[in-house]
Design brief:
Length: 398
Amino acid sequence: MLNVSIKSRSSGGLARTLVLALGTFAVGTDAFVLAGFLPDMAASLDVSTAAAGQAVTVFAVAYAVASPVVATLTARAPRRALLVTALVVLGLANAASALAPNLPVLLVTRVLTAVAAAAYTPTAGAVAARLVPQQQRARALAVVVGGLTAATALGVPLGAATSTLLGWRAALWLVAALCLVTAAAVAALTPPLPGVAPVPLAARLAALRRPGVSTVLPLTVLGMAAAYTGYAFVEPALRAVGVTGSGTAWMLTAYGAGAVAGNLAAGVAADRVGPTKVLTTGYAAMAATMTAFALLTATDARSLPAVAVLAAAWGAASWCQTPPQQHRLIGAAPDQAPLLVALNSSAIYLGIGAGTLVGGLALPTGAGAMFAAAAVLALAALAWLTATRATAPGGAPR
C-alpha cells in the first residue's frame, strides 16, 4: 500500500475529507431518517408505531455493540477498501429495508445497516486525520463530524418530505442510492492507506475502568436517552402540538439547524468556560424544552412559530452534549483519546436505543407522557452530573 505523501497531505488532504463527510452524511441520514415517517411505516407493516420504533432501537444498540468489535476485526484492512465496503453494505441493507415485507425482516436489515455504519464512521475520522498535516487535524475531524450534524439538518427532513410525497420505501431507496454514489466517490477520490495495528477488544474495554471514565460514559447514555425519547416518534409528537403533513419536515429542519448551532457553540464554550457548565446548561435547557412540549400537548393553543423555536432548542440541547463529553473523556485519559471517543460513540447509540425504548413505552399513553419522560431523563442527567462533578476528569469540578 502507498502512503499519502507530505505534499499531497498539505495541498489536498483537507479537500479530500469532504467526500468522507458525504459518507457520514449518508450514515447520519440512515441512522435518523426513520423518525420522519415511523407511523406510515408502521401502518404499512401492520404494526403499532411503538412496535415500529424497535427498528430505531435495534439500529442504535447494534451500532453500540458492533463498534468496538468491528474496529478490532477490521484494524488491518486497507482503509479505502473498508470505507467503500461499508458504504456498499449500507446501501444494499437500506435497499433491503425498503423491500422488507414485515417488521422482523426490517429489524434484520437495520442490524446490517448498523454494522456497516459502525465500520464507516470511526474509520472515516481516522482516515481524515491521516490525510492532513497535524495542524489541520481538528479541522479535518470537524468536517467529517459535520456530515452527521448536516444529516439532522438536511438529510432527515429530506427523507420526511420524500416519504410524504412518495412513501417511506422511496425514502429508504433514496438513502440507498446516496450510500452507493458516495461509495463510488470514496473509491475514486480517497488515496490508498494501509490498516493499523489492532487494539485487542479486552484492551478497549479495559479503558472503562479508568478513573473518571466510569462517571462520564453513563452521563452520555442518560443525556442521549433524554434527547431521543421523543425524537424517534417525532411525527406523532409534533402532531400532538398541531404540526402535520409537510410541517413535519420544516420542524425537523428547525431541529437540525439547532443541532448544528448547538454542536458548534458547545465546542467553543467548553474551551472557554469548561465542559461541566456547558453540560449543565444543556441538560437544563433539555428539561425545560421537554416540559414546554408536554404542557403544549395539554392545551388547545397552537403556534407553529413557538413549536419551531422549541424544535430548534431541542436540537441544540441534544447535540451540545458531545463536544464537552469528549473534552471530559480526553481529560480523563489523554493517552487513550481515540479509544475513549469511540466508546463515547457507543454510549451515544446506547442512549438513543434506551430513549427510543422509553418513548415507545410512553407513546400509547400520549405524546405528553413521552415528553414528560424525556424531561425526567434530562433531570436525571443533570442530577448525575451534579453528583459526579467533584470527580470530573482533570481535577477541578468545572
